[in-house]
Amino acid sequence: MAEILSLHDAVARYVEDGATVAMEGFTHLIPFAAGQEIIRQGRRELTLIRMTPDLIYDQLIGAGCAKKVIFSWGGNPGVGSLHRLRDAVEKGWPRKIEILEHSHAAMACAFEAGAAGLPLAVLRGYVGSELPNVNDQIKFIDCPFTGERLAAVPSVRPDVSIVHAQKADRAGNVLVEGIVGVQKEAVLAARHSIVTVEEIVDDLDTHPNACVIPGWAIDAIAVAEKGALPSYAHGYYARDNRFYREWDAIARDRDAFTKWIDENVMNVGGNA
Amino acid sequence: MSPEEKTLDYTAGEMMTVTAARALVNGMTCFVGIGLPSEAANLARLTHAPDVVLIYESGTLQTKPDVLPLSIGDGELCESALTTVSVPEMFRYWLQGGKVDVGFLGTAQIDRFANLNTTLIGDYQAPKVRLPGGGGAPEIATNAGEVFITLKHSPRAFVRDVDFITTLGFGRDGKGRDGVPSIGQGPTRVISDLCVMKPDSATKELTVVSLHPGVTRADVVEATGWAIRFADELEITPAPRGEELEILRGLKARTERAHAGQ
Hints:
Shape of chain B: globular
Strand content of chain B: 15-25%
Largest interface: A-B, 55 and 54 residues
CATH superfamily of chain B: Glutaconate Coenzyme A-transferase
Order of helices and strands of chain A: EHEHEHEEEHEHEHEEEEHEEEHH
CATH class of chain B: Alpha Beta
Order of helices and strands of chain B: HHEHEEHEHEEEEEHEEEEHEH
CATH class of the largest domain in chain A: Alpha Beta
Helix content of chain A: 25-40%
Largest sheet of chain B: 8 strands, mixed
Distance between the termini of chain A: 21 Å
Structural class of chain B: alpha/beta
Oligomer: heterodimer
Number of helices of chain B: 8
Number of helices of chain A: 9
Strand content of chain A: 25-35%
Helix content of chain B: 25-40%
CATH architecture of the largest domain in chain A: 3-Layer(aba) Sandwich
Radius of gyration of chain A: 18 Å
Number of strands of chain A: 15
CATH topology of chain B: Glutaconate Coenzyme A-transferase
Number of domains of chain B: 1
């Protein structure tokens, strides 16, 4: 049963040093406030899983929280590179990180398999790609019925998943609207889950086929207003495209990045 | 060519986009990559192919954006879509399930067998340049019925052998799809700002089939990192028509206005 906590307390309770953490949201509803709370609390040695690391993991990587990143597309959407990810991979700053890269199809299937409680996902994928040469988590198996060679990847089963959504009701039931990505799968695949929301309402005012995650499948709900900025929340606010462009210059330079983190993450109170 | 068309002024980039757009047939289902493919696919939808079905990997099915998305998951794609599905559903049911006629991709590097590299330049363990990675492309390229590719011509982009095959064209030897069950045809055309290339029917090596107006064979040879071949019956790509240019420029101006304020 979801407990309604402050963002500070939710992160402090469920995100431990060395944990495997998935923070999802496909371009939309990226849980930035929660990511910055993890930076503020100084978590270390995290294995970070996300299809698109986006600026949220660029910030966590640059702040030294990550030891390993599992991803499928590591760019700044519509802008270019994630410079903190690149600096860590190419030059080992602020620390060397291990990367494990997949395709989107494989990661989406791996989240789904995690939600389904299976050890692996099977897909018609990676044919002719050299990704299996550099990622030992990609294997091939023969279909026992047809003999077709198919790709297999381990399911994603994080210690904790964190997603952002529009709203929760007082029982902790969550409504996700718009581009739903793999958010529901991430929550169901994880041992623990935190959902940050724009607001808590009396009535979700939903319809039968909406993407609703029941409160009893979630550990903690935390209100984080504008918690997805600079990404967006369908129905609440638009993507801050200007910030995504500005991030390029901030993240390109180690000092500019450190200064930005100090001013915008470390020296602000969070919402504890 | 009519006298009116001769006098039209357009850029090489516009020539590329218009040519790429014309490759799409009305009614096709197209899985669209962000950037140049998205520009071309939406131009097609706004001109000769009003019923082309555009699908983006963010889960937006049959979307009709009024402005071009900056990211693959812009709100505009969802708001103008027939419906939005989860990302696992998108890749499993719609792409892997065989519902996509054509995948439209861009890339950082392409080689003579149309293999795509969006992973890195140099050695994997010590990359000279780290690129974003595979994203949706590896499975789009094998599970879509066929693949169109569009990118600007340069010797750094068109290399003999890619440093890393992120996404299969026809493999290191041109035979990468031979005997593979349930695999699409692969790249059937590559559209650059200089020319249109198609894989040779026997060797699968990319061959220039048409030069854009004003472009010479020497221009293409100079901008290509291998000794590229030309078709025996080399054609001239038809120039953009006034209406196509007008709609493309309108789309880009709307897009710029929409993104400027954000």
